[in-house]
Description:
The chain is an alpha+beta fold. The protein is built from 22 helices and 13 strands. Strand 7 and strand 8 (164-169) form a beta hairpin.
Amino acid sequence: MTSYYSLAVASLLAAAASVGARSLAAEKLLGYKFEHNMDDHARIDLDQLAIETALGTKTSTSFDNALTIYESGGHSKSYARLQLQSPLPTRVKKGSDVKGKTAGGLTIHAKAYEEAEEGDQVIEVQYPTDEGALPCFVGALNLVDQEDTSGCFGPTGQIHIGGIKLEYDYDIEEENVNGRSIAGFSLGAKKKMYDTKSCAGCPYPEYSAFVDYYGNYEYADDWIRSALTGKATPFQGTGNADFTKFGFIGKAEAAKKGMAYMAVWMYVVRELRDAIDDCNVECDLECAADDPTCTQCNDEPVKAWDEGVAFYSGSLAQQADHGDGYLLLSLANKRGLNFGTHTDGMSWVNTEIFELFHKGAKHLAERDCRKAEKKAERIIALMQVPLIQGTLRYSHKLSEYGSVEQDDAEMIEKHNGEGATFAAAVLPMLNKCSSKDADTVYKHMKVGKLRSDYPAVQKAFENNYDCLGITCEDIGGVLNDESKYFLERAGPCGSGQAFKRYGASPKGAGGDKQFSVGASIGIAVGAFIGFVLVAVGVKKATGGRTGKEDIKEVHTEPVESYSAKDTGEMSII
């Protein structure tokens, strides 16, 4: 019998095959042109998909398998450990060309993964990532029957390194491994984002905020591993979570969202910051300070920037069968739909971020490190928006205004797992602005908190939008998924008094409370005039907002997306 799981596996393999033939370097992604081949980097999202597929079966074995895929990977930076039948006759440098064949006789043009010394009997060889290269996806994927060995070295054969021919054999299932995994993003973060000997700009401010809050350098790994194993987090600081309170549903939500929105999120930040470091350091070393025409130093910073874009997007972004994929680009679009901050399904966050990606790469290519840094900082600020939106969305679902029935234990656990993880992914940044407001969000969103005080959570965030570098318009308001009206007390900033002011009233639909207007055209006209008269007061009361958020909630039609266009202004920054 064909199971749901088998169908999911088949879907994954089809996705991997299609991605193998796709080159990010050969096309633009939302207007961004990659200068380097980032296919291998972007495939980290295939690990995320494999993990989510495993977690979907909700068994102890599937959670163990998900943990192993998280630790070991399967799709990114694949390499083989070949056992040589005779000692290596000479030293082989990292990156040296290595040629061999697949089990089917196809030639593989690979490279030495690490330096090998004369006399070694094992050599590590990295598989090609060029467009059209067949995949060798093994790693931990054999645990869930998802491996693809079509592009792997055959189990026995001969490799060529320069003029040297070497016989080898190896276990194709056990000795095809991966140099990149989602776990590695967190486990390697201290060295790459904190230690001053490792990077010029270290410690990076965003990572420092998380270390200060959680008291652990490997906070993301701690969260993910604790969720998968059903234990309490070992944080030495604030924000601990006790996953013994959850069954499979809550643990799965916390683990998979922790991977994408804590581990991968921070690694995107790392790549952007690293690009700026490369720009400053490399250009200082290779170019005269007074020579603006010197561009020989720009390759490494542009490459690091490309890597950040690849990890933000993933390989499945904009693919017909997978929507926007499984990483941060996808999250921003989902939350844009939930909060009315999108245009035709593309979130305003992604629209601005990809424009900034493009401009930042241009600045790096021109050695304008300071302008590139400004773009990076704005991107990082915008990357907080979907995390805040996610926290607000699930806070509302679990509040007295939400639609979840209190006896629906599975749905409550699911939403608690989701909301707690979104909060965990942004609390350290909020804490930098206000420890009091961060404590409020944690109190109402932590694991095991089955009822949330939405107004308190909403206010705690809104108090700090200026500090976080974002605006009310960036966030939007929580929409009813069906009617597209803003849900009760969940409109954009400053809209809380709009309904009283304009005579609007709540109405129920499908069990949810949302706002609509039964007023006549005359009342609507009067409301608009009233709005004009109080606009200045609203602007002052809402931290400089224009008041356009108030207008949309008294419209008689559902909100597809609210924006400044309703006041005749531009809707996209």
